Amino acid sequence: MTRHSLYSTLVLSLVSFCSIAQNPDNVIYAEGKIVNALTKEPVNARITYQSLPYGSRIGVINNSTYSFPMFDNEKYAIVVEATGFSTVKYLLDPSSADSANKVIKDVELSSEGESKHAIGQVMRLDNLIFEVGKSKIDPESYSELDVLVDMMVENPKMVIQLEGHTDYLGEAKVNYKLSQSRVESVRDYIANKGITRSRIKTKAFGGTQPLSRENTPEAHRLNRRVEVRILQN
């Protein structure tokens, strides 16, 4: 191989390496738009994000859109702030990425003083994890529960109902008891953060209200959930 050919090969290798390093196929990106909840028009906001649980990766974006890489399969918390609008917080999980390796979360901002959480609204705690067959909360779930705590602090009149569900496998009585003990564990966590217990109702459904009847591990995992219903705000 001539010196020129060797040089050309090294240059091409370097370019290829840089391309791979900058655009790895396995990197997941969080992306979204910030809009006015009423008009659906773009809103320039300050988007702060940090990796969980330790916040080792943080960043700030000032725009009406955001995009950032989610490295090492870590979850990220984002806080969206804009003048004249109520601050909102979300938890982004890389496991919810689509086929294009993107976690898409558009954010709607409500004007300050305007209710963001309508009575009857139901939110699923997608990142709430318990030990198998038990009601002990996995520490990885604390960040999502803290978002719920913050929401109740920011809305002091809010009353919620925690609704526990299991899959439909096994004995109905056992499933009901498990779903009840799990929502009680969540209630205890929230109360220990300073939220009055009278603002936290609980209801257990066992496996009577599955989201899916498919007999697959994914469907059973989807059915095992805790949901938050807004009773008063």
UniProtKB/TrEMBL annotation:
Leader sequence segment: 1-21
**Keyword terms:** Cell outer membrane, Membrane, Signal
InterPro entries (alphabetical): Bact_OuterMem_StrucFunc (IPR050330), OMP_bac (IPR006664), OmpA-like (IPR006665), OmpA-like_sf (IPR036737)
- The principal location of this protein is membrane
Q: Which residues form the OmpA-like domain?
A: 117-233
Is Signal one of the keywords UniProt gives this record? yes
PROSITE patterns assigned: OMPA_2
PANTHER family given for it? LIPOPROTEIN YIAD-RELATED, STATOR ELEMENT OF FLAGELLAR MOTOR COMPLEX
Name used for this protein in its record: OmpA family protein
Organism field: Chryseosolibacter indicus
